[in-house]
Specification:
alpha/beta, 60s Ribosomal Protein L30, Chain: A, Alpha/beta knot, 2 domains, 6-stranded parallel beta sheet, 4-stranded mixed beta sheet
């Protein structure tokens, strides 16, 4: 597995995630002066490529599994990492409860766009989400583009896969989580809902939204407050807005 792009690799090196090697094609600006000490501290192999060694850099990129399109957006930097580990769902739920009084988990109901997944991981890390759950089937793969767009978010948000999302939501409910589905058709707004409990927020597919059976499993479905002519946002933007609203409400809850 590879991570591409300067900022994503820098965030990776500053995280607790293992890194096998970092490859850097020398360009103006001397990015190696920032990344190399981080790689050495992490005991990751460092490989420099001079300006005349672009072909060798590209060959190593492809050997590591990168594609031509990913090479174009790599900014001349990539890191090799072990395959991303997916946690067991219940392990994720229970760890979230130990982390804080009002943890948030995100459940993605057959979200298929790798870029949306990357953006959601970035927002999840920014708002301190305790974990993210993907469906086993008909779900976005975790690609180098996903990891780049997450800007290191993937290194801070543990992930799990659920073969049966409804069962996973039921498991979370049994552990004390309230399950909230985001839907533009909901009559109650996220802004006015009571949210003083551990939360599982369900984000639907980019085209179809939350599946019917998933929506029935939620404790309730909520909409985002709209103040303009449009009633919906794309999945990644909707997630960021929802997390901001939830964290704002939670900031007024007692923590004791």
């Amino acid at each position: 597995m590879i991570v591409i792009g300067y900022h994503a690799v820098e965030a990776l090196l500053q995280s607790g995630q293992p890194v096998r090697a970092v490859h850097c094609l020398q360009r103006e600006g001397g990015r190696s002066s920032t990344l190399r000490p981080l790689a050495e501290e992490k005991k990751a192999t460092w490989r420099d490529y001079g300006l005349k060694e672009k072909a060798r850099f590209e060959a190593e990129f492809k050997r590591a599994g990168g594609t031509g399109a990913e090479l174009e957006s790599s900014q001349g930097v990539f890191a090799e990492i072990p395959e991303i580990r997916f946690a067991e769902h219940l392990e994720l739920v229970r760890a979230a409860k130990e982390k804080e009084k009002y943890p948030i988990l995100l459940y993605l109901d057959e979200l298929t766009d790798p870029q949306n997944l990357g953006s959601i991981l970035r927002s999840a890390a920014f708002f301190g989400v305790s974990g993210l759950v993907l469906t086993e089937h008909r779900s976005s793969p975790v690609t180098p583009a996903t990891l780049k767009i997450s800007s290191g978010g993937f290194a801070h948000v543990p992930m799990a896969r659920a073969g049966n999302l409804v069962r996973a939501l039921e498991e979370a409910k049994e552990e004390g989580f309230w399950i909230v589905g985001l839907s533009e058709h909901a009559t109650e707004s996220l802004q006015t809902a009571r949210l003083d409990a551990p939360l599982g927020i369900v984000i639907g597919n980019e085209e179809k939204g939350i599946r019917q059976l998933t929506a029935k499993t939620c404790d309730y479905t909520l909409s985002l407050p709209s103040h303009g002519p449009l009633i919906s946002l794309n999945a990644a933007t909707a997630t960021a807005v929802a997390l901001a609203l939830v964290r704002e409400k939670q900031s007024h809850f007692p923590t004791a």
